[in-house]
Amino acid sequence: MTQPHVLIVGAGIAGPSLAGWLTGQGWRVTIVERARSLRTGGQAVDFRGPVHRTVLERMGLWEAIHERRTRLGKQTLIDASGRALVELPALMMSGDVELHRGDLCQLLFERTRESVEYRFGDAPTALCETPAGVEVEFEHHAPQRFDLVVGADGLRSNVRSLLFGKDTDCLKHHGYRVVGCTLPNALGLKQRGVIYSEPGRGVSVTSAHDEEQVRALFVFTGAPLGPHERSPASACDAVSAAFAGAGWETRRLVDGLREAEDTYFDAIGSVHLSRYSQGRVVLLGDAAWGGTLGGQGTPLAMVGAYVLAGELLASPESHADAFSRFEARMRPYATPAQDGAKRVGGFFAPRSRPGLFLRNQLYRMLTSKPLERVFEKLVTHAANAFELPDHGGGFATPRA
């Protein structure tokens, strides 16, 4: 039997993860990515618990990820004078192992580039299902037929829009905006982070691989982003307005934002869909269940890719059954993780002074010696609440 030809849209985390499992079993995979090159920016991502670790080990990536880990330690909630209010354990913010998202993207790309056809600078414009497959039209490439299409193209998935309609109201806004960037390490941080909050606004600064740099994250209340608000200039204007008059070192961080070369700007929200697939097209990762921040997006994408690959390999001639089993497994796991995206804005930037006081008191209590075991279970529960199947497949390996 001729092995299926699968189109995956999105060359971030979910797409190459799925591609590695499928090509490892001889399937033909094409990945199309709108960006002209691999996107290597973004915040740090973390993995925690045995489910995440098992998937990484089966992919042969556990050691490689450890070699690239940030080694970030504790993070501290501070007041306007820089005085420590609460010490947050490393497990809460950076899991068992943390690395920069760009490092993981590069690692997955290197593992799959020889077995996968990558097309950068292009995107699908139409999907038309036929008895023989899915006819796909592209912005630049000639139309082509594929056996299956996977939308792994993020929160604002183009494939999801083509599949369910552009007006599908599935991205729920949670009342906050977020701006991330890399800045000079003017605070002298080393393998640690600090979080300063005022009502409705907060900034997190964490050390990076390079001791000369830090990752900064500005979180503040605000409406969903308009169609032309995602530019670095818009991000600078929004942060400048939101943090005007803020205390601590905030002014210096805001001023540095205008010189940043990797500014990221988004509204905090999460995707809610009644189904993950339709016909021969299925959504994976953030396109299906994602949250902007705090929703375990990266590990869920990699677990989801593993599960989807297993179901497709088990039923290569019945994609409908494979997609149905994939959703039945992943939905109960992914949906509770979205609670993190709902709460993350309120953690970094409680809306009121009483809310800020209560946050500090809560985490001071949870991080106390009597409750440290309870707290550990709380921060790992969502990640561990899954029975991982064993599909026995092999992940793509680069040629020697």
Automatic annotation (TrEMBL):
InterPro entries with a match to the protein in the record: FAD-bd, FAD/NAD-bd_sf, FAD_aromatic-hydroxylase
The protein's name in its UniProt record: FAD-dependent monooxygenase
Superkingdom, natural source: Bacteria
Record domain FAD-binding: where: 5-319
Keywords: Monooxygenase, Oxidoreductase
GO molecular function: monooxygenase activity
PANTHER family, per database record: MONOOXYGENASE, OXIDOREDUCTASE-RELATED
SUPFAM superfamilies attached to this UniProt entry: FAD/NAD(P)-binding domain (SSF51905)
